[in-house]
Amino acid sequence: MHAVQQLYQYRKSLSTKPFNARGKGVNRCQLCQCAMEYCICHLRPKTQSQVGFVLLMHDIEVLKPSNTGRLIADIITDTFAFLWQRTNVEKKLIELLSDKKWQPIVIFPEHYVDDDTEVFVDNLPSNYLSQNVKRPLFILLDGSWREAKKMFRKSPYLKGLPVLSISINRMKNVSDSYIRQASEKHQFATAQVAAQALQLAGEEYNGKLLNHWFDVFNFQYQRSVCQPNAGDEFAVQRLETLVNSQ
After folding, report:
1. What pLDDT shows up at residue 87?
2. Which of 61, 83, 110, 116 lies in disulfide reach of 165, CB 3.0 to 4.6 Å?
3. DSSP character at residue 80
């Protein structure tokens, strides 16, 4: 199991009652969270990446079967997952953010960032992408938009880190078929945002791969909760075509 799946099992072990998400009666694969008959684990692609991700996950978010953070960990080996905490922060997280081989970069909209923070909009400077310097470590705040804003404001260990802001214009071409309904126009699935970050880090193929993997999950998840006409029925075919092109 990768980091997100391990965190899910850990958080589940702490629960005193079942988490009743939409489709609570579905017999799910415990790894991909789709219904067993629509399991996508056998389709999971492999790739190599110089990029890493840190998922700071809200306490409830990690239990949601619709969470797409796990899709990042499916593809990007160096994906780390932690339950978000304001003060009682895991030592491993602080050590990771201090590791000299990584350059931590928080992904968040620029209009929430204070004036003292270095912000990049839809680009990363070349020195962040050189093979001779630190590897990009993108930090994603994984929760509802309300939760994410709170996490951004109340995480002192993120202060001083550079921020990558991905504009709505850049995101406008991503899939608009998503298992959750966004309440604000700048909200996108965690995996969709990660795919854009990969492309900005110079990993065009990996960004496309994650987008296609998201579409596969989205379609099969919708089928799992009895919405067969939602999502993209050609998602699996597109994923296989991309993988076979390499």
Report:
1. 82
2. 110
3. E
